[in-house]
């Protein structure tokens, strides 16, 4: 009979909504959704000509694009690589999403953030002109 | 327009999940209520419990890529050498995707449940209870442990526990047998009346004292412990704002009715008029309550149309087609109201019951009554 308590200790202030549109939560998280799959290699390639791969906090990371969100509007643009451009928008979620972290070593669950907006890219990519 | 550089970990963290916070969950969190994931066993469905509500969790998969990102500063940003398309500014901030989500957890409000199937039954015979526990390898739960692991919020548990006849004997959570509950209820009602206690505002200690008044202090074992009295009072009453217990005469009347059905109409059928007399005479003297025959629906059928016979729905098959066939074998035509208790649990999609019945049977209106018969 497993039982796990959800810790919400870090989040008390997040329930006070100030009404402003903020893509990034006060705790610094952003949700980005793309229709389709973004595929990365599991290990950095030997020949990384564009310096896309690097290391952060001992983890392999890859630079996959650039994001522009027009201030004051809900339009977003994402440039993937050098050839693809995606047009998207900032949308308010019907119901906020709680970001839960499951710690298997201690058997605890931590509600780490409450996400109210997401940047969504629904359309097919366009070429960069 | 400011530009953000997007990065992702090659191995995203799989320890994260997204939970849709519906208005009730959000309200529970805002109220500072603690939330717990619970499951009766590793194979069972997971529920989420607040102080007073229980939600069933469902995993909704989608085919989109949802990245949760946080701001960071790349270690080698200076020499990353990003080639920017024309008109795009140098990134002024950077986001790193650390988890990729292809599913969301959705919570649907449900009723908390206590699994009493593995609990021992206490018949009031303490010696026998102890010996049975010793003989069997049954798991012995304390009430606290049972509450902790039941897929049920704490407040729902406290409300449901006496209703299912839950009690504690020797620190072991158990269920009182039907016969024992009947015995305790009968004595309890008589004792309260003898002591002129107010049925609308009973005090637990006074009820306990009243029940035990004539038990004496002899060496003979007294089964009417405070826990037993608390369970039976809790089962048949509601807690008032002042913390007193108000006896629910309707619940008492129904209990005596079902017991009377079992006693007088189990093997042979009995006319409804005769049954009502038997039912009325089964209460303790001077105890008054209304006899609502409709409250016994789901415990009897009418083999020959008018007379009634006890029947427990526990014996019915689970398959809807088989269950309808079984019911029509017992009785060729049912009044819809009397049939509902036997079939409502099959209506899992919550269809209007009239329409649900039409899927498996024929429905006919006769004045104000609705009759259901086989196709």
UniProtKB/TrEMBL annotation, chain A:
Superkingdom of the organism of origin: Eukaryota
Pfam families: Ctf8 (PF09696)
Biological process annotations from GO: mitotic sister chromatid cohesion
GO CC terms in record: Ctf18 RFC-like complex
Protein name: LAME_0G17612g1_1
UniProtKB/TrEMBL annotation, chain B:
Keyword Phosphoprotein attached: no
Membrane spanning stretches: none
Gene Ontology annotations of biological process type: DNA replication; maintenance of mitotic sister chromatid cohesion
Keyword terms: DNA replication
InterPro entries: Dcc1
Gene Ontology CC annotations of this record: chromatin; chromosome, centromeric region; Ctf18 RFC-like complex
Pfam families, per database record: Dcc1
Protein family: Belongs to the DCC1 family.
UniProt xrefs under PANTHER family: SISTER CHROMATID COHESION PROTEIN DCC1, SISTER CHROMATID COHESION PROTEIN DCC1-RELATED
Protein's recorded name: LAME_0E10022g1_1
Species in which this protein is naturally found: Lachancea meyersii CBS 8951
Lineage of origin: Eukaryota, Fungi, Dikarya, Ascomycota, Saccharomycotina
């Amino acid at each position: 009979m497993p039982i796990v308590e959800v810790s919400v200790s870090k989040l008390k202030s997040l329930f006070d909504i100030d009404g402003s549109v903020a893509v990034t939560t006060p705790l610094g998280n952003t949700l980005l959704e793309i229709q389709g799959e973004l595929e990365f290699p599991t290990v950095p390639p030997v020949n990384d000509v564009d310096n896309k791969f690097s290391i952060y906090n001992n983890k392999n990371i890859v630079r996959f694009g650039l994001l522009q969100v027009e201030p004051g509007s809900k339009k977003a643009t994402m440039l993937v690589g050098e050839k693809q451009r995606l047009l998207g928008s900032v949308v308010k979620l019907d119901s906020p999403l709680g970001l839960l972290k499951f710690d298997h070593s201690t058997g605890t669950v931590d509600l780490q953030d409450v996400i109210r907006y997401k940047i969504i890219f629904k359309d097919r990519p366009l070429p960069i002109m | 327009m400011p530009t953000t550089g997007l990065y992702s970990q090659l191995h995203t963290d799989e320890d994260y999940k997204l939970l849709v916070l519906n208005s009730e969950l959000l309200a529970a969190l805002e109220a500072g209520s603690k939330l717990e994931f619970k499951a009766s066993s590793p194979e069972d469905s997971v529920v989420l419990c607040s102080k007073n509500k229980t939600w069933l969790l469902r995993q909704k998969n989608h085919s989109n890529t949802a990245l949760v990102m946080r701001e960071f500063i790349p270690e080698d940003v200076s020499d990353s050498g990003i080639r920017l398309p024309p008109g795009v500014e140098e990134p002024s901030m950077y986001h790193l995707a650390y988890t990729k989500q292809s599913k969301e957890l959705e919570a649907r409000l449900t009723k908390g449940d206590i699994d009493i199937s593995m609990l021992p039954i206490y018949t009031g015979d303490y010696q026998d209870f102890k010996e049975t526990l010793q003989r069997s390898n049954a798991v012995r739960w304390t009430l606290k442990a049972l509450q902790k692991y039941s897929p049920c919020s704490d407040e729902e548990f406290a409300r449901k526990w006496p209703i299912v006849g839950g009690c504690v004997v020797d620190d072991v959570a158990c269920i009182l047998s039907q016969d024992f509950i009947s015995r305790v209820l009968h004595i309890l009602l008589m004792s309260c009346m003898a002591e002129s206690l107010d049925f609308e505002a009973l005090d637990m200690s006074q009820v306990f004292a009243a029940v035990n008044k004539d038990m004496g202090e002899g060496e003979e074992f007294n089964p009417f412990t405070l826990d037993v009295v608390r369970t039976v009072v809790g089962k048949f009453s509601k807690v008032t704002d002042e913390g007193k217990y108000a006896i629910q005469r309707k619940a008492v009347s129904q209990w005596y009715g079902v017991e009377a059905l079992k006693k007088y109409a189990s093997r042979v059928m009995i006319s409804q008029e005769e049954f009502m007399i038997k039912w009325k005479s089964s209460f303790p003297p001077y105890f008054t309550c209304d006899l609502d025959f409709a409250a016994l629906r789901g415990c009897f059928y009418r083999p020959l149309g008018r007379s009634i016979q006890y029947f427990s729905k526990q014996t019915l098959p689970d398959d809807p087609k088989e269950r309808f066939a079984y019911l029509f074998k017992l009785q060729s035509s049912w009044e819809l109201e009397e049939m509902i208790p036997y079939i409502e649990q099959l209506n899992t999609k919550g269809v209007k019951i009239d329409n649900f019945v039409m899927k498996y049977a024929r429905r006919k209106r006769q004045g104000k009554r609705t009759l259901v018969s086989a196709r």
